[in-house]
Amino acid sequence: MRQRVRKGILVFSALMFPMTFFLLSPFVIVLSATQGVLNGSAMIFGFLLIFSVIGSRLFCGWLCPGGAVQDYISGANNRHWNSRWKNLTKYMVWLVWFSFIVFLWIHNRPLKADFLYFIDINTLYLIIYVIVMSIIYLFTLMTGKRGMCHSLCWMAPFMVIGETIADALHIPRFRLKAKPDHCVSCGKCSKICPMGLDIAEMVKSGRVDSKECINCLECVDGCPKKAIKFGIYKR
Questions:
Q1: pTM of the model
Q2: Which of 147, 164, 181 is the last residue of a domain?
Q3: Nearest Cα to 25, choosing from 44, 6, 10, 8?
Q4: Domain that residue 84 falls in
Q5: What beta strand segments (E) does the chain contain?
Q6: Same domain, 208 and 131
Q7: What is the pLDDT of residues 133-180, one digit of tens each?
Q8: How many domains does the chain have?
Q9: Which one of 66, 74, 75, 220 is least enclosed by Cβ atoms within 10 Å?
Q10: Which residues, 6+ apart, have CB-to-CB distance to 110 below 8 Å?
Q11: CATH code assigned at 210
Q12: Distance (Å, whole) CA 120 – CA 113
């Protein structure tokens, strides 16, 4: 039942993406910064960082429209796309992108806040939307399960930073916990993980706390022996 609800929310989020794209776009925040404006996407990204200190990456697994699109594209290519170097790419891309935004903010001071800045469906918006959706579609089709999340996502690093802050300060946050003695090594958790993580191996090691985990709870609900639990825990 929980997964039906989660997937239903993701479908709705994907359907609403043409409207919410204004508030999640990696381009609109740059265009706003050139005018010295803290727009809606800047505020949303800041909120996600703060929320992730407690909520980890729940947004990615339950609300992200880009993630929803990728989940359905994975029907055409469901191979796992997950490794240290593949995952590192998004941080390199994020560092360049975010550094440029900060430079623009500093260069165009004083900043003014406008949550609804640039929210207007026009030709430029349609071009930006088509470009971003094409990148999500083609990259996921070429790579596999949530390839964008692993390698190119501009939002994930904000939440990983939030998780890292929580762990460094010993703040309890949403996370999974393993019960290795319950595991029967069926491997079902690894097969159904939308991020292509080797959950089975992580459970055996007693640690299922990965920065790539999107807290979708697929593995929790799919485990026949309830070897994985979730809650608000310290590291």
A1: 0.92
A2: 164
A3: 44
A4: 2-164
A5: 37-39, 112-114, 173-178, 228-233
A6: no
A7: 999 999 999 999 999 999 999 999 999 999 999 999 999 999 999 999
A8: 2
A9: 75
A10: 36
A11: 3.30.70.20
A12: 17
